[in-house]
Amino acid sequence: NIPITLQPAGTQTIVSVQDVTPILTSDTATMSATLERTRIEQLPINGRSVMNLLATVPGMVSGSDGWRVFGARVGTFDVVLDGAAMTDQLYGGGSVARMPSLDSIQEFHVEVNSTSAKFSRQATVIMTTKGGTNAIHGTAFETNRDNSYGVARARDNFTGVVSKLIRNEFGGTVGGPVWIPKLYNGKNKSFWFFNYEGLKNRSGGQNNYRVPSMANRNGDFSDLVDTAGKMTVLYDPLTTGAGPNYLRQPFNYGGKINNIDPSRISPFMKYVYSILPQPNIAGVNPQLGNNFYGVAPNITDEYTWGARFDHRFSDKDLVYGRITKAMRSVRTPANGGVPSLDGFGNSRTTTQPNESMSLDWTHTFSPTFFNEFMFSASRSVTTQFSGDYSRYYTNELGLPNPNNQPGYPVVNNIGVGTGISNYFQPVNWNQQFFNYFIMENNGTKIRGKHEIQYGMHLRYDQLTYMPQQQRTAGNLTFAAVTTGLYDPVNSTATSRAMTNYTGHVAGAAYLGYSGYEVRVAKGKYYMHQNEDSFYIQDNWRATRRLTLNLGLRWQFSPYPNDKYYIMSSYSKKDNAIVLGNTLDTFYKIGAASPAFINV
After folding, report:
1. Is the distance from CB of 105 to CB of 48 less than 8 angstroms?
2. I need a surface site. Which of 91, 123, 269, 569 has the fewest CB within 10 A?
3. Quick one: which of 130, 132, 104 has its CA closest to 190?
4. 487, 460, 386: which is closest to 430 by C-alpha?
5. Which of 361, 478, 313 is nearest to 409 (CA)?
């Protein structure tokens, strides 16, 4: 036997730090989630919208109409940035289109249930911005996606061509102490921080359309046939004879049926043909199939920048101010219509600038008593229009414009069909201005086992809203009966029938014979609303294992109203409409007219 003695080589101390999220949070009854700066940086996010972080919060569900909290209705949550509202109350809690830069957010906190009496909604998204430090620090980034390289590229089913996608996101941050050579050294006292982020996205898929053939543009409509090859004959309305049969002669220019003299083309239709692309699929009759393919452009430009200044006046007083400005501009096709060469007939541009600012003063009275006073304001503007909103396209086209409205007229089917109700579907004004002003004061006092929070919240919203001015620049409808042959057998005194396989929308459009409609629409509404509240919250640690969160909140949110009090109601008892103001006021601001009232 050989004795073996094992000697200890020494002792070693190992400290293991693990970040393990507990399954149950025992120190608060509130259901919430917090993402600090490190996790915000590390989480993979498709697109750099800070609102995408809500996907990490249990109970928050995204849908086509916005975010919802545990299936509750849209609008049951608020989004605040350093106390400034980023949520409107018109569409039930929709956040501003271009949120602040992801790199500017220091902390992202969401409370979704059993929230404090301090908050006015079921759930609250609370974002705080970064500030400067004693050392100058900064970041920069650039992200690019381009359909010209890479493996996974979506191809159009019809052409086999890679759809256009060029996306660039770029920006950076920088911050540090305020330092003015020989004048001021702000270390430990004054700090600044600045961020910028931009996005440029160019995309568009290849789509198939029907456009007038070159023969159509020259008055030749011999291609008006069905799948069986049977032709629809056009009749000249200027040759209409006397009743009861109202006979007409078919178009027969140059000895060819359905051929219209090119000199009879209407000025309006000459313009429409000039802005429509020419067919690029050879041998296809637009009455039977798509004869054009092209790109429907989708152009997005965004930017946001923010600046923050922090100053510590003393150990007891800390003040900061922050301003953020953003813009989102999107140009998209309208309802699948043919992309017009002028760029606006079948497209719409939406611009959505927004600004917000916050001023905050925190004063510490003692280690157990401190107070925060905050004032914030936000402004967002959304404008949607087709083309140049300063141009009166209807006047330029020689069409009636009795209300002298800017914009482009809606044009219904011109005889080739697009699968949508209107061949040109522009947007004539859709605009809203939202201003929010909030003043808050929040105090916290710790006394024994009690953490007492109290405060006030005063909010004032201004909404200047103009709903979509539908067809205020006119609407043109071309009817096949214009070039049809009267059918005396099936017609009545109140209904005029047309002989089968006669008359077509394409012929009526070419000649410029149309029905015209113009709508009178109410312009802007000047809405305002208050939201005033006071609260007290006692977080009482009754025992080592029991904490009671007791809160009381008083909140007054009256129904919004227009500054001219033009809202109306209905009295069932009197069977009458009840107006909020006199008829003269309604007439003065364009909410009604004497002719309408007297009908």
Report:
1. no
2. 569
3. 132
4. 386
5. 478
Question: Taking a C-beta distance cutoff of 8 angstroms, is the pair 52, 68 a contact?
Answer: no
DSSP letters spanning 208-233: EE----HHHHTTB-TT-B-TT-PBPB
**Any residues with CB less than 8 A from the CB of 435 and at least 6 apart, and which?**
377, 378, 379, 461, 462, 463
Q: In this structure, what are the phi and psi dihedrals at residue 217, rounded to the nearest 5 degrees?
A: -65, -20
Edge-first strand order for the sheet with 515-517 is 422-424, 410-412, 475-477, 515-517
Taking the model in full, what pTM does it have?
Answer: 0.80
Whether the CA torsion 18, 24, 26, 30 is positive or negative: it is positive
The pLDDT, as a whole number, for residue 270 is 92
State the pLDDT at residue 537: 95
Count other C-beta atoms under 10 Å from residue 596's C-beta: 11
Closest CA to 383 of 400, 406, 404: 406
Q: What is the dihedral of CA 209, 64, 86, 443, to 10 degrees?
A: -170
Give the chain's residues under pLDDT 70: 1-32, 63-65, 89-94, 150-161, 334-336, 343-345, 417-422, 599
Nearest to 458 by CA among 120, 112, 74: 120
**DSSP codes joined into one string, 370-404:** EEEEEEEEEEEEEEEESS-TT-BHHHHTT---TT-
